[in-house]
Specification:
By secondary structure, this protein is α/β, with parallel strands linked by helices. It contains 13 helices and 24 strands. The protein has two domains: 221 residues, Alpha-beta prism (UDP-n-acetylglucosamine1-carboxyvinyl-transferase, Chain), CATH 3.65.10; 210 residues, UDP-n-acetylglucosamine1-carboxyvinyl-transferase, Chain. The longest helix is centred in the middle third of the chain and has 13 residues. It binds uridine-diphosphate-N-acetylglucosamine and phosphoenolpyruvate (PEP). Phosphoenolpyruvate binds next to helix 12.
């Protein structure tokens, strides 16, 4: 028996209630922001996922005292003794997540030095960090690329600057925010990303004493301040996990109530869900959430183009494609955020789906990847009867989509590599059990 394999007996609808907590893509950044304060910070609703463990480990290596609070998911961070960490110890986390690159600004302000191990994260494209480094250099950082990682200093401190991102990168926007809040002078960031997780990070930084103006047309202006205090914050709910369960409800013909889910961050997803033929009901009460279900009848083929916010989020794409294998007609998917995020469709085809991938920009909007040999569009012909097949999980969201496909398929599949799913989905095995799925460890 290994914890990395799940045996999935598919073919029955998922039905029941599960709960989502703080967003993976906010919580990890909020934890890094705690480094910037002079006093302790407190975060609620932190999910027990691998990315949180990694960032906790990195903070502790830098002398931050991280303690569990009284409530489940409550974490406190005391940054009063931040110190330089041992490179060998930091490198234990090499290749495990993308978050270490965001330590640059806070560590440069606290210590004048940052060592950043090689990054991990999903293998869905080249995922360069050129925008991050360019912005940091413009602010006065000196970046030395060493065989074991990036060695970064700021001999004269970080200075405010005017910087325009070539593409509204989430991580690079967060990099600039975390570096500029305590830089000397004003920073103007143009073509910034404005994802809800970024707005929530800005809310946290404001609680800490930062002065950040979000203007129209993707312009963010940050006035550097001399000191920041700790924060207390309840993060926005995880809109990617929510969409994943919503897609699972649709693909299996089920009915899932996602407690904690919030409509505001999911408008584009909910529009597509309606067009496909899914049903949802919003419960706005403080303990509310969103119920997602398959109302019966046929699902309809759609055009789905991923984009930066407020577009259809790329991390929603993979789970939703499994539901699209059940829709009548030809659905078109155009992935415009990552150049290699459709490889997982091979496994869906092995399970009986009919998905053809293309290098061209299908769907109407030419993107950065057109005419560059990247297989980034797909046509899905449905509905297809999915049949069990063993699958190996390649990355986080593809992993969840393979799991959904196995749940929707007739027969028993083995899903290998489920540890990868733990990077972003808290307690997913318990949640599957709560939804009546028939799964067991392999
Ligand atoms: C931990 C986290 O929050 N991860 C999310 C974050 O990833 P992440 O912050 O890594 O994603 P980015 O928004 O930076 O990447 C978007 C695109 O910009 C390109 N790029 C980015 C930076 C750079 O310096 N140079 C460059 O070319 C990337 O290769 C990619 O094609 O936003 C993505 C887009 O919503 C989500 O899919 C990820 O779940
Ligand atoms: C791409 C993702 O995450 P990361 O940036 O952490 O690899 C994701 O959450 O789907």
């Amino acid at each position: 028996m290994t914890t990395d394999v799940l045996v999935v007996h598919g073919g029955s609808p998922l039905r029941g209630q599960i709960r989502v907590r703080g967003a993976k893509n906010l919580v990890s950044k909020a934890m890094v922001a705690a480094l910037l304060g002079d006093t302790p910070s407190r975060l609620y609703d932190v999910p027990a996922i691998r990315d949180v463990e990694i960032v906790r480990g990195l903070l502790e290596l830098h002398g931050v005292r991280v303690t569990d609070g009284e409530l489940p998911g409550e974490l406190s961070f005391d940054p009063s003794n931040v110190e330089r960490a041992n490179v060998d110890e930091i490198n234990v986390h090499a290749g495990s997540s993308r978050i270490p690159i965001l330590f640059c600004g806070p560590l440069l302000h606290k210590l004048g030095h940052a060592f950043i191990p090689d990054l991990g994260g999903c293998n869905i494209g080249g995922r360069p960090i050129d925008f991050h480094l360019q912005a940091l250099r413009e602010m006065g950082a000196v970046v030395d690329k060493t065989p074991s990682g990036l060695d970064i200093t700021a001999p004269n401190g970080l200075q405010g600057t005017k910087f325009e991102l070539p593409y509204p990168s989430v991580g690079a926007t967060e990099q600039v925010l975390l570096a500029a809040v305590r830089a000397h002078g004003v920073t103007e960031l143009r073509n910034a990303a404005v994802e809800p997780e970024i707005m929530d990070l800005i809310a946290i930084l404001q609680k800490m004493g930062a002065i950040i103006n979000v203007h129209t047309d993707r312009v963010i202006e940050i006035e550097g301040v001399d000191r920041l205090r700790g924060y207390t914050h309840r993060p926005i709910p995880d809109r990617i996990e929510t969409a994943s369960w919503a897609a699972a409800a649709l693909a299996t013909g089920g009915d899932v109530y996602v407690q904690g889910a919030r409509q505001a961050d999911m408008m584009t997803f909910l529009n597509l869900y309606t067009k496909v033929g899914g049903a949802f009901d919003i419960d706005d009460s403080p303990t509310g959430g969103i119920r997602f279900w398959h109302p019966g009848g046929e699902l309809k083929a759609v055009l789905l183009e991923t984009d930066v916010h407020p577009g259809f989020m790329t991390d929603w794409q993979q789970p939703m494609v499994v539901a699209l294998t059940q829709a009548r007609g030809l659905s078109i998917v155009h992935e415009t955020v990552y150049e290699r995020r459709l490889g997982y469709t091979d496994a869906l085809n092995q399970m009986g789906a009919t998905i053809q991938t293309y290098r061209e920009c299908l769907g109407g909007t030419p993107c950065r990847f057109g005419r560059r040999n990247f297989t980034h569009s797909a046509v899905i012909a449905g509905p297809s009867k999915l049949i069990a097949h063993d699958v190996v999980i390649p990355d986080l969201r593809a992993g969840f989509s393979h799991l959904i496909a196995a749940l929707a398929a007739e027969g028993t599949s083995k899903v290998y590599g489920v540890e990868l799913i733990r990077r972003g989905y808290e307690d997913f095995e318990a949640k599957l059990a709560a939804l009546g799925a028939s799964v067991e460890k392999g």
